[in-house]
Amino acid sequence: MTSTESAQELRARNAGRTGLVIVASTRAAAGEYEDRSGIIAVEWLRERGIDTPDALIVADADVPAVIDQLFTGDGSTGVAGAGAGNLPELDALPDVVLTSGGTGISPSDVTVDAVERVLTRPLPGIAAEFFRVGGAKVPTAILSRCVAGIVDRPKPAFVMTLPGSRGGVRDGLEVLDGVLEHLLDQLAGGGDHEAKAAQAPTAEASPPAPTHVPESSAAEQNHTLHGSGCCHRPAVPDPPHVAEQTGVVVHTRITEEPLESLLSSAKDVTATPAMGAVSTFEGVVRDHDGGELVDTLTYSCHPSAAHVLREVVEEVVATHPDVRAWVAHRTGPLEIGDLAFLVIVAAAHRGPAFAATAELADQVKARVPIWKEQKLRSGATTWVGLDS
Questions:
Q1: CA–CA separation, 131 and 128 (whole Å)
Q2: What is the pLDDT of residues 48-93, one digit of tens each?
Q3: Which of 27, 112, 144, 255 is the most buried (most CB within 10 A)?
Q4: Amino acid 85: pLDDT
């Protein structure tokens, strides 16, 4: 679903409307990594002219208290938590509340439960469309417990729970694009169906004149430059064996072994004859950091790092199902110029390969518990990942 209105028209239509994005992430709330999903929803709302503060980031366990405080103001469900005191200053209840995270099935995923308690008019069609859109890209999207609907107190507001992944948030926004403003108009007492019906052409109305499409335009319709950066012919899908080889985590590892010696073999096992693009990110030890010269450094990691690395890579590949990924990170002492972090992504087309490589590099650096001890030229020692 894509809005046919211009950005200017959307901003005019949404004048005076407000939004709020709540991110459920215990680790982001603790400052262990930067939120990268909630900001997507915040920017999307702002672009539409919906006044939205920065995302409110709370620990998973505090989400029920925040939802209670937002919609009842008195925590009447008996849930208390530190997050309830973190609500931004709001003149009134937002017109749109989007959450990110806590939609899974683990014991700590409580966002959906908290929202379901306050929903007064569920909108199952929106959730169904989310599952359809997400499931077409990632089969495991059906494991999400996405809900959407209206909370009627203290004033009507639309609420939707989105996954914690960037891809999941984008899928949810894709569903809302084109229907959100109509929904909000109806909540405000507008969006009159009869008025729209009165404007519809009658049977006696003259049919529109046929439009001539130049040959060049027809050709352009079959050869599109997509937002992913991948230029190909969408009307001609890849053969079935391509899909059978993608959506794969080829390998992950944390090792003290030099990554330079693994580079060639890693590319060999990641690429296949069906892959037309191989994207590589090589994180190399530089000789400076924060304005200081660096002599040497040592990486260390938490015992769970290997498990977290695998988990992160699987999550990113799930949101980029057209790729194959190989990821490794060094630990131990390294010299300037050594290869510390290696990401290799293969895909049939360059757009998905580039996008997945960038997200893998960002997510691994943000979420995997690996720390860096740096010996500076000045004689001082700094820790990256611990001092912050």
A1: 5
A2: 999 999 999 999 999 999 999 898 875 443 334 444 456 666 667 8
A3: 144
A4: 52
The answer for residues whose C-beta is within 8 angstroms of residue 7's C-beta and 6 or more apart is: 47, 48
pLDDT value of residue 166: 87
Give kind and range of the element (H or E) at residue 150. strand 148-151
Instruction: Take residue 30 and report the two structure tokens written for it.
Output: 């603790």
Residue 97 domain flag: yes
Report pLDDT digits (tens) over 209-258: 444 434 333 333 333 333 334 444 444 788 999 999 999 999 999 999 99
- Residue 41: which region, alpha, beta or left (left: phi > 0; alpha: psi -120 to 50)? alpha
Q: How far apart are CA 144 and CA 320, in angstroms?
A: 17
Both 249 and 372 in one domain: the answer is yes
Q: What domain count does the chain have? A: 2
Residue type, 126: I
Task: Pick the closest to residue 19 from 102, 84, 94 (CA basis).
Answer: 94
Q: What's the Rg (C-alpha) of the chain? A: 24
> What is the rounded (10 degree) CA torsion for 106, 111, 112, 115?
160
Q: Which segments of the chain does DSSP mark as H helices, in order? A: 7-13, 26-29, 38-47, 63-71, 111-118, 124-137, 166-176, 180-187, 193-198, 215-221, 240-245, 263-270, 305-319, 350-367
Question: Domain range for residue 111?
Answer: 8-73+90-186
In this structure, are residues 238 and 244 in contact, taking their beta carbons and an 8 Å threshold?
no
Q: Domain with 95 in it: what CATH number?
A: 3.40.980.10
